[in-house]
């Protein structure tokens, strides 16, 4: 059995931490004795210290990390959670849509790694958690830029995990389902698309952010990766990987739901 590490007194930074899963992770870390500091693009009313930065801006994010380390000490845990989403058909996405989503979701994650991981290797300890998505595992239709960005995080997590272990740093990639967070409600949609009806047809009851946060940290504490949940998502991923034709059917079924529910 893997040794369970403690988050007691560990300093953590969470991007996209002002709401949703990021804030839920902060609350869960606090219950485990951790000391979370949040980074968000907008000022938020939270009980935790908050730094403002756009994660897609490497210099701004690095400056925020420097301020956090000056005020709170070295970072033991860095969680790349910031994300945006747009629902639409692939031909509706502009080059700007692709750039904005990938720069926030994927490049934002790489910027956090660049700002925190080197010092972890020097100290010989630390942990990175990359919050990807089930969409990045399965290949979710009608969200191609989001899916691409999350798949990129998954690939980065695999590669980085293999490198980091020799320095005493653990890397875990989390792949949750749709969560009951502001992103689910406020995510944008292209013209003529009923985002809420479509997403509800695929997953009837979104998981609560607090349940997801608890599950992610439980698995990260024993250095498990990738962290794929719930059970039906794990099963779907295995089926899609082992049997590509069944994977195509899963995606075709999602497309059929879009044609039925997703068009206004």
Provide structural commentary:
- The protein has a seven-stranded parallel β-sheet with strand order 3-2-1-4-6-7-11, with helices on both faces. The protein has a two-stranded parallel sheet with strand order 5-9.
- The relative contact order is 0.14.
- The protein contains ten helices and eleven strands.
- Helix 1 (20-31) links the parallel strand 1 and strand 2.
- The chain is of the alpha/beta class and 264 residues long.
- The chain has helices at 20-31, 58-72, 95-123, 134-138, 144-164, 182-186, 195-202, 209-220, 231-242, 244-262, and strands spanning 11-15, 35-40, 50-52, 77-80, 86-87, 126-131, 169-175, 179-180, 188-189, 207-208, 227-228.
Write the layout of secondary structure elements.
Elements: E1 11-15, H1 20-31, E2 35-40, E3 50-52, H2 58-72, E4 77-80, E5 86-87, H3 95-123, E6 126-131, H4 134-138, H5 144-164, E7 169-175, E8 179-180, H6 182-186, E9 188-189, H7 195-202, E10 207-208, H8 209-220, E11 227-228, H9 231-242, H10 244-262
Parallel strand pairs: 1-2, 1-4, 2-3, 4-6, 5-9, 6-7, 7-11, 8-10
Helix pairs in contact: 1-8, 2-3, 3-5, 7-10, 9-10
Characteristics of this structure?
single chain, 264 residues, alpha/beta, Rossmann fold, seven-stranded parallel beta sheet, 11 strands, 52% helix, globular
Summed up:
This protein is an alpha/beta fold. The chain has a single domain (11-196, 203-235), classed as Rossmann fold, CATH 3.40.50.720.
pLDDT average, as an integer?
95
Count of DSSP H/I helices: 10
Q: How many domains?
A: 1
Q: Identify low-pLDDT runs.
A: none
Strand order of the largest sheet: 3-2-1-4-6-7-11
Q: Please tell me how large the radius of gyration is.
A: 18 Å
Order of helices and strands: EHEEHEEHEHHEEHEHEHEHH
The H-level CATH homologous superfamily, spelled out, is NAD(P)-binding Rossmann-like Domain
Question: What gross morphology would you assign?
Answer: globular
CATH topology: Rossmann fold
């Amino acid at each position: 059995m893997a040794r369970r590490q403690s988050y007691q007194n560990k300093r953590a930074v969470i991007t996209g931490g002002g709401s949703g899963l990021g804030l839920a992770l902060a609350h869960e870390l606090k219950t485990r004795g951790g000391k979370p500091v949040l980074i968000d693009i907008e000022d938020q009313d939270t009980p935790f210290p908050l730094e403002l930065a756009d994660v897609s801006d490497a210099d701004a994010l690095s400056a925020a990390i420097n301020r956090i380390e000056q005020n709170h000490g070295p970072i033991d845990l860095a969680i790349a959670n910031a994300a945006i989403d747009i629902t639409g058909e692939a031909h509706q996405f502009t080059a700007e849509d692709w750039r904005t989503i990938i720069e926030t979701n994927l490049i934002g994650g790489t910027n956090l790694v660049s700002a925190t991981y080197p010092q972890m290797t020097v100290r010989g300890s630390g942990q990175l958690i990359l919050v990807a998505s089930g969409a990045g595992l399965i290949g979710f239709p009608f969200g191609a830029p989001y899916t691409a960005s999350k798949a990129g995080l998954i690939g980065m997590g695999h590669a980085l995990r293999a490198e980091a272990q020799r320095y005493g740093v653990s890397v875990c990639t989390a792949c949750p389902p749709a969560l009951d967070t502001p992103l689910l409600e406020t995510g944008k949609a292209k013209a003529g698309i009923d985002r809420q009806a479509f997403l509800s047809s695929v997953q009837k009851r979104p998981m609560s952010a607090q349940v997801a946060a608890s599950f992610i940290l439980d698995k990260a504490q024993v250095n498990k990766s990738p962290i794929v949940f719930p059970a039906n998502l794990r099963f779907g991923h295995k089926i899609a990987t082992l049997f590509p034709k069944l994977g195509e059917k899963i995606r075709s079924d999602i497309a059929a739901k879009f044609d039925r529910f997703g068009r206004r």
